[in-house]
Design a protein that fits this description.
By secondary structure, this protein is mostly helical. The chain has helices spanning 2-10, 14-36, 39-56, 66-84, 105-120, 124-135, 140-147, 151-175, 182-185.
Amino acid sequence: MQRALVERAQAGDHGAFEALAEASATRLDTAARLILRDADRAKDAVQETLVQAWRDLPRLRDPDRWDAWLHRILVRTCLADLRRSRRRPIQVDLGSIHLPGVQDQLTGIVARDEIERGFRRLDDDLRFVVVLHYYLDLTLPEVADRLGVPVGTAKSRLNRALSSMRRVLAAFDERDPGRVPQEARR
């Protein structure tokens, strides 16, 4: 089904491309929001990604790789945006992220704040891997494919990202160990 839409879009069918874009828009927006940490910039990145995809679609060799190809364009677009805006402070809104298993709102707010604290300190390459793997539920081979890196590189980046976030969370616990009981975070 998707292959047929991609092939029709490659032939210039605007309706087919619109169907593909609509099917991918939510995942692209989620990934862009988490990577860029700004809803407006994320919308711009998604729009730029779709424009570039339409322009470059005739060069897509394997229509079955549509999703991987589109995510790779998004990652490059987000990276370019981050490079352009290095000096601007970034505000993060994690209000729309669902944290499963949270017992009450206060625990959820504290846990989300701690995760954001660790997430904010990640380098761009590490943040991309975390977003693609944990928020978009992609396997590590899929993450590697989306980023255009070997699987081993994706694994090491994920490991470095998680280690970095653990250090931040451990430092937070040392400063204020009584704030949230350890059991409440599990």
